[in-house]
TrEMBL record:
PANTHER family in the cross-refs: HTH-TYPE TRANSCRIPTIONAL REGULATOR RUTR, TETR-FAMILY TRANSCRIPTIONAL REGULATOR
GO MF annotation: an example: DNA-binding transcription factor activity
Source superkingdom: Bacteria
Coiled-coil features, chain-numbered ranges: none
DNA-binding region (UniProt annotation): 39-58
Ranges where the HTH tetR-type domain occurs: 16-76
Alphabetized UniProt keyword annotations: DNA-binding, Transcription, Transcription regulation
Designated name of the protein: TetR/AcrR family transcriptional regulator C-terminal ligand-binding domain-containing protein
Pfam families: TetR_C_11, TetR_N
InterPro entries cross-referenced by the UniProt entry: Homeodomain-like_sf, HTH-type_TetR-like_transc_reg, HTH_TetR, Tet_transcr_reg_TetR-rel_C_sf, TetR_C
Species, as recorded: Streptomyces roseirectus
């Protein structure tokens, strides 16, 4: 193989792949050690890249952790709108449970409940706020279409996601689609049954 031929450049290319490896390594280390125990110096070795690649892209440790967290949990900040509210909420709960049931998800739970409000935890809070906003938009569209009576979307989100945290964190059994369907059915039935007539 000729050493003189320049490497072909692709959109995103090597730098994008290096960044992905660094973010993945950060997630892996946070899952292993928690946010508080995360050591910036280990990232390059775990990612299989040169240390300068980490420092050049993320001169600040907290910036790296924040970006990795946001990158990993961005799917949690969305709720699909297929036109079937029951299905969309069930799928949302299954995605939430899948993330919570990983070492990384458990580290996030511990970080959120710790008293230490680092930038990383504040970023997590931002993701959760985005999730609440996404839930509000989905519920508001369901109300507009007549799928639901007027309801406090924040309350609905808390009611359906609370049992997921409980089941996953207790670790008694895996969270299954049947669990998600039961939770959503009971909550939606309760909202419809208690809606004021008029």
């Amino acid at each position: 193989m000729s050493q003189s031929r320049p490497a072909a450049r692709r959109p995103g290319g090597r730098n994008a792949r290096v960044r992905e490896r660094i973010l993945a390594a950060t997630v892996e280390l946070v899952a292993r050690d928690g946010i508080a125990g995360f050591r910036y110096e280990e990232v390059a070795e775990c990612a299989g890249v040169h240390r300068t690649s980490v420092y050049r892209n993320w001169p600040d440790r907290d910036d790296l952790v924040v970006e990795a967290l946001l990158h990993y949990v961005e799917d949690l900040a969305s709720v699909a709108d297929t036109g079937d509210l029951q299905r969309d909420l069930v799928d949302f709960l299954l995605a939430l449970a899948a993330v919570l049931d990983t070492p990384f998800g458990q580290s996030l739970e511990q970080a959120i409940h710790s008293a230490r409000q680092t930038e990383a935890v504040q970023a997590l809070t931002k993701v959760l706020d985005q999730r609440v906003a996404a839930m509000r938009r989905r519920v508001d569209s369901a109300v507009e279409r007549g799928e639901l009576p007027p309801v406090d979307s924040g309350f609905l989100g808390e009611m359906i996601s609370g049992p997921v945290h409980l089941i996953v964190n207790r670790g008694v059994r895996p969270f299954a689609r049947a669990d998600a369907e039961r939770i959503v059915s009971v909550i939606l039935a309760g909202i419809r049954a208690t809606a004021p007539e008029g």
